[in-house]
Amino acid sequence: MSREYRRSMPLLPMSMVMQLTELSARQIRYYEEHNLIEPVRSEGNRRMFSLDDVDSLLEIRELLEQGINMAGIKKVFDMKTNRVNKPNILSISDSELRTILRDEMQQARIMKKTSLRQGDLTRFTQKGK
């Protein structure tokens, strides 16, 4: 069972989440209405919260204490969601990276300047180590 799966399991009832987050039931329902958390409903239609939900509620409380309004909190959560769900668009092979670095170093040599990366690369090319 992966860590992500365990953290997303709905385990905690509203009363426990209220104690952990020091938020009222009304506040928690309000954040649910705004889709900042998504607790699962039990067969008896009771909200069950995951550890991820608790973390989100604590983050909401912290952002509110810093003076950020609900619109700002929604933007923060949207940015977080987009970053997690967005695949890494920039993908470069080793040979492409070597070509870029070689071109950069040749350009620096032509301009009679030291490449910014040259210092970083010397630790990999030093003899005797």
* Rg calculated over all Cα atoms: 25 Å
- Approximate shape: elongated
Average pLDDT metric: 81
The assigned CATH architecture of the largest domain is Orthogonal Bundle
Question: What is the string of SSEs from the N terminus onward?
Answer: HEHHEEHHHH
The CATH first-level class of the largest domain comes to Mainly Alpha
Number of helices: 7
How would you classify the helix and strand content by structural class? mainly alpha
Strand order of the largest sheet: 1-3-2
Strand content: 5-15%
Number of domains: 2
> Would you report the number of β strands?
3
Topology-level CATH name of the largest domain: Multidrug-efflux Transporter Regulator, Chain: A, Domain 2
Instruction: Please give the largest β-sheet.
Output: 3 strands, antiparallel
Descriptive labels:
129 residues, mainly alpha, Multidrug-efflux Transporter Regulator, Chain: A, Domain 2, three-stranded antiparallel β-sheet, 3 strands, 61% helix, elongated
Q: How would you portray this structure in words?
A:
The chain is mainly alpha-helical and 129 residues long. It has two domains: 3-85, Multidrug-efflux Transporter Regulator, Chain: A, Domain 2; 94-125, no CATH class. The protein has seven helices and three strands; from the N terminus they run αβααββαααα. It has helices at 3-8, 14-21, 25-33, 51-65, 70-85, 94-110, 118-125; strands at 12-13, 40-41, 47-49. Strands 1-3-2 form a three-stranded antiparallel beta sheet. β2 and β3 form a beta hairpin. The protein is elongated, with a radius of gyration of 25 Å. The two termini are 42 Å apart. This is MerR family transcriptional regulator.
